[in-house]
Amino acid sequence: MAPQYAQKFREEWMKDKNFKEWIVELENDNTKVRCRFFKCDIRTKKYDLNQHLKTKKHMETTNNFSASRALTIFIKPITTKTAQAEGALCLFITAHSSVLSCDHLGVLCKNRFKSSEAADLMKLHRTKCTGIICNVLAPYFQNELKNKINNGPYSILIDESTDISVLKFSGITIMYFDTDIRRVTSTYLSLVEMESCDTETLINAVKTTLLS
Fold this sequence. Notes:
Elements: E1 23-25, E2 32-35, E3 41-43, H1 46-53, H2 56-74, H3 80-96, H4 102-112, H5 117-120, H6 126-149, E4 154-162, E5 168-178, E6 183-194, H7 199-211
Antiparallel strand pairs: 1-2, 2-3, 4-5, 5-6
Helix pairs in contact: 3-6
């Protein structure tokens, strides 16, 4: 019986349109390759590779991968300029307006500034605006405030209020010396919902806010 020839991995397979999307070279074994989709090893014989290529599961997975890649190419990625513009609008809304106005403001910018790349890719509505405010802007400014105060002295101002739904809230403001502008300043720190307005509850609310 004639000895079988052990075929080794070929670099040209990485350029072959039938193999390049799924074939993975094994560093410790040049007589096998791995399927990227199924994580299984296949002998480095072209016949075996072609047989694996024809299996039903592999064909279905390859089609799904191609469709997903085509969708990724079709969708334009958001540029840094667009992200900066959306962040600036969210910051403006936080300081001067209601989040509800974001639905109209985003569309207005997109329609009236068509020559701008940032505005052209902008997709900003109330849900995304709320997410940017809560998950991007708020953590950034909280961290910046902590760095400014550091171990310096500060004062806490508390004001309790009740909204139209009869929920009680405690607004907490902090006063400190801002080294950037060289003067004492005050800024919003937190708005805490209160179950009651007794002394112990207020103290616990302030402690929780300062420790968070």
